[in-house]
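U., I forgot to send this yesterday:
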Amino acid sequence: MQRDYDLFVIGGGSGGVRCARIAAQYGARVAIAEEYRWGGTCVIRGCVPKKLMVYASEVRQAVADARGFGWTIGEATFDWPTFLAAKDQEIARLSGIYGELLRKAGAKVLDGRAVVRGPNTVELNGQTITAERIVIATGGTPSWPNDIADGWISSNEVFHLPTLPNRIAIYGGGYVAVEFAHIFAGMGAAVDIIHRDTRALRGFDDEVREHVMLGLARAGITVHAGRTVAANRTGANGSGRVLVLDDGSEIACDVALAATGRAPATAALGLDTAGVAVTPRGAVIVDDYSRTNVPSIFAIGDVTDRVTLTPVAIREGHALADTLFGNKPTMVHHTGIATAVFTQAPVGVVGLSEAAAVAAGHDVQVFRSTFRPMRNAFVGRDDKTFMKLVIDRATRKVLGVHMVGADAPEIIQMAAIAVTMGATKDDFDRTVAVHPTAAEEFVLMRG
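Result:
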């Protein structure tokens, strides 16, 4: 029997939109449904608005540096409502572009919450729709601290605060937590960050983590390391929050932000109706081609809990469309993926940390450099840049590249090409430096 569509995508985020668009360009009959706004986490409540906030928060330091370079600048003030309005306008523009790209490709764009009702059936706004194949691309949703879920906002709500808090407390030690700590500190708020580990950014190279901790302190952020939150109660006179830590100490704040991770958004999606297997966390289990245990149902992006990064979701969506409709079976390799953390200064990494390389059995040789960049030295700022290469001693292959410093995300994107191609330390050594730059240090490190 002929079904309504060849492909039905549930979720209008980066991965789902790419999959639907490419499949439609191949000539498939495609429909895609989104219950909120087109663009998903990245465009609406993640990468894009957060990066705009990073830009806004960096101005304070830029003004201070400008004075060091001889500019006469009066007192600078920041207006949160003005920024919010401009941010919302940009997000609306980008969200509209996503929908328009889908329509131009020939996909049917549907608004509403789609629920799986069987291997080839979904329900949307009370209507039953059939499809040869269904793709789950619903992304992730914020998770909350155990046992104290009340009194928090998440990274969803933080973009819509009506006023800039005078003091904000952030619970978590991952990239979302440390990025927002720097953002609000740069905008003039007093910031406390609480995390259970001794250092933030678990999973990153230990030396990178140490430099990030130093950066938090330099930014005036109060760090409560090795601590957990035991209670979150309403503040005095019924306003604000008071966080009680496990050592009995208290933090009074206007806003308490929970940045304790995200979970796959599969609740009430109807996957059990179709017999789709999920992990205890709710992640859809897939193989290297994004296939679930149900032959007609696939899943891509954060909902699979593989590598929860927007470019990975996009790659998975494109690969799935190529596989299903382009006669180009394509796997996505989830190793050697570069990533960035937009702290101030930012982090850029690709490949293995030193500890991971040792654990993988490599005889490791490490090259590192810590220096004060020319810009910082000139204006009297003590912030240092850190760079590190992790090398296999026998093959000289570059296993990992790590950086904390200005422009690290931009630099690491280019380093990722070299690492992906299997570059060796000798390849780095024979590359002529571009001077004066920070990036040149990667090709000048010697034992």
